[in-house]
Amino acid sequence: MQRMVGAPVVTSTWTAAGGPTRAVALEVLINGPISRSEIARRLDLSAGSLTRLSAPLIDAGILVEVDERADGRAGRPSRPLDIIPTSRHFIGMKLTGDRLVAALTDFRATVIETVEVPLSGHSVTDVIAAITALVDELASRGPEIIGLGIGIGGLVDAEGIVRSAPFLEWTDVPLAELVVEATGLPTVVENDLAAFTGYELWFGAAKSLRRFAVITLGAGVGYGLVAGGEIVQDDDTGLGLVGHWPLDPFGPVCPAGHRGCARSVLTTDAIVAAASGALGRDVSPAEVMRLAEAGDPAARRVVDDAARGLGRLIAAVANLTSPQLVVIGGEGVALATVGADAVQEGIGIDRDPRTRPVTIVTTSGDDTDWCRGAAAMAIQEYVAPSRR
């Protein structure tokens, strides 16, 4: 199987089953509990082949037969297969410019516990020390850790090398290899938005959808796309290109010199700057949203203007890719809820009224969203490696 450019890589050997057995495990992981007949249909397997392939997974404690249930056909009720979520544990990490957040998860990326540490500096040595400290802390809690996923904002190549991470001032850092050497854990390093999108595809609101989009709001603006049930990635994944999408020809100018682009309108810094100017004092992102909800006219105007821009971005995504769902996440996700009416206004500006409504869901917006994404990449590589 040929790897896609930009896909995550594991730099140490996983110990999961191989070949068709992996396909069975993957099907149950994503869709379980699921009947044997349905698995056989989806994977084009005979009943005998499925029994042979699932047996080692059951013996290993990865799969389990759950309570019988009728499947609508004559004969004995089926005994569906499911994953035992607590049978395997993973760590997902989100690396920012000032801290490292880690989550211990189960086999379906459900967060069990989170820990974080501030970064003492941006050097590779400082970051590796922080990663090692959090791995040791979570590993000391009891469960065996199968693998580690790390999400980072920037360009990450197919070998787990961070080609560019401006917020850390990194270039060509072999992070995956260094982490394996420091921790001994099989490690996946991935662009954080791609990892976020992967979680939504496997376990989140867009689970099993063939076509959906992700927009993240915060320090930047991110865009992820799933088409044909696969994350769309290439060498440019991680450059934040959607941040340059034009939204308002009269809007503020971003650091790259673009007027009214998504970065200058939708980021947390942009909203805070606009609100602070309108209110005549410094305010935090949370305060802006609280004031807007409370009806403060200046804060309400700032939030609605930004939310209208978000709606126009959603309309562009919907017009170009026809997603079944648009997932909004990131620490700035409150813009989509506090400014929900204005978001719909923005969508209406650029969306043909004959089209179907755009279905939008929002995530929690906290760091666990990113950590779950990183863990999901490690889980994916364990169950269905991208490199054989």
What is the CATH C-level name of the largest domain?
Answer: Alpha Beta
Q: Based on the structure given, which CATH architecture of the largest domain is correct?
A: 2-Layer Sandwich
| Global morphology | globular
Tell me the number of helical segments per DSSP (H or I, 4 or more residues long).
13
Mean pLDDT, rounded to whole units? 90
Explain how this protein is built.
The protein has 388 residues and is an alpha/beta fold. The protein folds into three domains: 20-84, Winged helix-like DNA-binding domain superfamily/Winged helix DNA-binding domain (Arc Repressor Mutant, subunit A), CATH 1.10.10.10; 87-198 and 368-383, ATPase, nucleotide binding domain (Nucleotidyltransferase, domain 5); 207-362, Nucleotidyltransferase, domain 5. The protein has helices at 20-31, 36-43, 47-59, 124-139, 175-183, 192-202, 262-266, 268-279, 285-294, 297-321, 334-338, 340-350, 367-383; strands spanning 63-65, 81-83, 89-95, 99-105, 111-118, 145-152, 155-156, 162-165, 170-173, 187-191, 211-217, 221-227, 230-231, 326-329, 360-362. The strands form four sheets. A five-stranded mixed sheet has the order 5-4-3-6-10. Strands 13-12-11-14-15 form a five-stranded mixed sheet, with helices on both faces. A hairpin with a 4-residue loop joins strand 8 (162-165) and strand 9 (170-173). Helix 6 (192-202) crosses helix 13 (367-383) and helix 9 (285-294) crosses helix 10. The N and C termini lie close together (7 Å).
